[in-house]
Each structure stands twice: as C-alpha cells, then as structure tokens.
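Section 5.1 Outputs to date
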Amino acid sequence: MERTLASPQVTHWRQSAIFPIFVNGKIAEFQTEDKSIFLPNRTAHLRQRIVTSNLRDRYISCTQCPGNDRGSVFDSQCLAKPLSISQGHNSIRPSFIVLHPLDRVVGCPVEVEHVDGSRERTRFPDLIDPSQCFLDIKELSHEPIPGIRARCRMEGDTWECEDHRNWSDASFKTYVRPLSLPRPYVIPGGSEVRQTVSLTFSPSVGHLTATTRPDRVSISVGEPSGRTMPEIGVGVLADRAPHALAVADTLKLAGLQLLNCRVDPRAGHGVPELARYRDLARRLAAQVILEIIVPCREAPATELAQVAAAAAAAGLFPRAVAVTAATDLASYPPGAARPATPPLGEIYAAARAAFPGATIGGGMLTYFTELNRVRPSLAELDYVMHATCGLIHAADDRSLMETLEALPHIARSTRAFIGDRAYRVGPSNIGMPFNPYGSATTANPQNGRVTMAEIDPRQRGLFAAAWAAGYVAALVPSGVASISLFAPAGEFGIAHHPMPYAMPGYETAPAGTVYPAFHVLAGFAAVAGAAALAVGSSDATRVQAIACRSGGRTLLWLANLTPEPQKVSVAGIAGPADAVALDEASFGEAIADPHFSQRSTGRVGAELALAPHSVVRVSAPSG
C-alpha cells in the first residue's frame, strides 16, 4: 500500500516543456547536457529542471547550449521522421511553456518587449487577472534579485502570459499560441515547429553564492488573529449519495457541520435524490447546503420553485442554497462568446423566493477561474462560493502541493470584489469531479498521477491529509465561513467504501476503515467557531501551520508538505504538550480507528521531527 504516494513517475495530461526561472531569490538549476530527449510520460518541476514532451505521439527534442553564469538557451524541434511532421496534425499548444513562480514576482515590476519591438514597463498582477496579463510577447525581463536582471526571450511564435493562480497553480504561464486564434489547428505535414527560449542575466550571476536552506522550519504561535475557525463540510453528488449513506455511521464520528449536496434538474434529480440527502443529513446531524444547477431553459423562478417543491416533498429544508446557471459550468476563455443566460440577479432573487428560510449563495459550483471571469451580483446574495481542483495543469506531487501557495492569493482576490460578504470555499478536491474545460474528466484506471482525473490514489494516503491541513491553514486568515473538502466515500472519499476500480491496499479493508484525511477534517470540525491564532512559518512551502484556542487549550496543527522529514522549532506554545502524529508509523492504526485523532501519541517539546507528508496536532494548556 502506498502511503505518501511520492513516486517520481508521473503522467501529465498536457505534456509541457517547463523552463525554470527563479525561486526564493535563488537561481533555479540548469541542466547543461548538450542534448536531451525525455519520455512523454515524465514531467519535472519548474523549480528544478527542464522537461520536454511530445506533440501527442511525436517527441520534441530539446537542445540546450551549455549553461554558464550569464544564461542558457533552449531550442526545440518537433521530431517525426525525424525533423518534420510527416502528416497533418491537430494541435492546441505545441510549445515550450515558461513558468514564473510567485515569490518575488507577484506585483513586481516587469518590462515586456512585444513582437513589434515596442517596450512596456508594467507589473506582474497583484490581484489575480481573469484575462491574459501580457499579450504579443517577445521578451519578459524583471529583477528576481535586486540588481540582477533576468531576461527571458521567446522566439518562434507569438507568446502571451496568463495568471495561473486562477487555477490554483503557483505560477504565471507564458505560452503559444494566442487564445484569440482558432484551436485546435492543423500543422501541415512536412512542416517544422521551431522555438527558442533563452534566459540571460545582467550582470553575470557568477558572483552570487548559493544560499543554504535552514535545516529546520520555525513556527511561531501568537495571539488571536480576529478570525474564527471555519465550519467543515464535504461534498455529496447525487450518484454517490448511496455510498455516503453506506458509511454514514463512520462518517458521523468526524463531526462535520456541513454537507454540500448537489442537485441537477437536467439529470432528472428530484424527490428520491433529495430524500437521500435528507437521510444523510439526519444521520450525521449535519446541515445541508443545497447546490442547485439552474438549467435556464425556463424562467429561473419556475425552475427553482420546482426544486423547492421537490425538497419540501422530500422533507429536506436546507440551511443554505447555492445556485449556478448551467451555462456557467463551462469555462469560456477571455474574449469568447458566452451563451445567453438570465441576469444573475434574477437567478439569485428567484432562489430567495423559492427558499425563503435559507441563506442564498452565488458564485460558481466549479472553480475560482470561472468566478473571477463571471463575478456575481452581490446585492441579492448572503455569501459567495467557489471551489478549487488540484489537478488541472499538473499532476506530480510537488506541483499539486504547490497549489496551496495560490490559495491566499485566490482568497485575497475574491475579497477584493466581494468585500466583507460571507465567503465559503468548496467542495474542493485533489481530483476533478467535473471538467469545465472539456467534455469529460480523464480516465485513470491505473491509479497514476493524471491531470483532470476523478480518481487519484493520493486521496487514500497521507498526501491528502497533509494537503487538507495545508488547505485549511492557507484559507483561515481570509476569514472564510466554511471549507468543504472531499466527499464521504468514493473517488473523493474520506471513508472507505468498495468501488468498481482498484484501490491498492484496501481490497479487503473492513467496514469502518477511514483514510488519513478523515482525521484532519474531524480535527478541524471539532474546533469550528474557535478563535484562530496568528501563526507564522519560516517556510510554508515545507511546513504549514494553523492554531486555535479551544476548551482552555492551544491546538496547533503542523503539516509536512514534502516527501522528506522536516525538523521544526515551535515558539509560543506552553508546555507540557501532548501530540498525535498522523504519519507512516501510525498509518495502520489511523485507518482502522476513526477515533485515532482523539488520542495522544506522546509528549513533545519545542523541537519536533515531522515524517514525510505527516500531520501532527499539538495540544497544550493556553497561557
């Protein structure tokens, strides 16, 4: 049974060449081989190395001039017999992709040279840009280190840059071909695709000395931050409600406050589906947020009144109702024509009339990208919602964990247009329940790391537990009212239930088995409404932390986001402190016992050692 699921072998949906720029004030590594050809089912990471991919079934060669302290050059040609495309080929984006990380880039000055030779001095966006940041690019230059200018020059096509934080990626992406041009398009047989990306430094970086990363992460716990711990929920889809009911006795032990239950009249959902939601909510003693996809085939008032009547007939009276027009389930790139849809204000007003006893939410039942492009009418809403997905553009472990870096930017950008309106996030997942960017999610029968897939093996391992702890830690400072993560059972589940696909290590798991993420959500659900404390981490890319005061004690969660052990120093916690560690050593006990997180596995001091992808909860008397 894989527990951390941190193998370097990955499958990448849109295989992309990734060109490293800078991270944390240090120059990323260069590879200096004269020539490399990489297999199409491998991807590396923007912070460490360059990778290439294929044009579907054709290799791309990457030729790099030997790197030195002034720069490096990458050159590509599509190879098929061997230097040209022998047959016509449909393509969306055959190109290198350049990723700039967020640190020392967000909101910082940049100079853009356009393809017509003109130059523009501007800044990388601070708040997340719903459209492309820069168009018609030939070169981007900025100072990742004061006094050192990095010039990234791109030739062979017209490039443009978009803010990848929209999809919770921790980067800005520069790519070809422009979104304003038709796609997919045909590359004629016999043609070549040639691109060059060069990175140069002025002055030379030869005088710089490499910084040594501290051998431990320092965590400081302070006074109340003025925020409260959010309510915790899970998402329930209609076709998975029977599975949720099957694990309800186990799930009740998590103490969740909310069930995000989705209903889609287009799929014929009605009284039977709503009755299952009613039964599940009663068995869990949880409140229902009814997520309604409004077909917009008739007047919204008519359609929502029909859903309300079915809910009443089923005996389901939701605490909150969230609505999204069916047309907004699909994502439309900037400039694309959107289908005619009733005004959002009309949809929200119809929801309030149909469900007068519920709070009304609007926004997106998909992801922040779509919310940022179609912003809600606030006057009719009690709260705004959206979700995120971790597997949209990359599926390797490190890129997935890095999506947590984008969450504070997403929350800050959302707050910029919703003000102090209540803000709910979720149901968010590692995998993808629904694909706004295509006709279906990606099949993953081999339990690999695959973008846009529903099934992801990390959901059942320690990785998902660490990711969930980091997710909540990243969002609590923004004052979210609730966070819903994962599902009761199934592809996104926190409790085990047999499914018609392979689940290595769980083939004979008995009833009552839970996945590690169960304990993380249960721990946070137990302190919903408690006073959150100000917490600082000297390196949140390695260890995320979140703390609160509850029942006369200070509770601190530490999540190791890496596949390596991490040393941690904690300040601001009074001793003696108890701890419970969710890690490889306790894995067997944790999945067998839904009460595991309520116990103590030992006493700890100010110095801790975190195992890979572990979550440790420290409990100490409040000073």
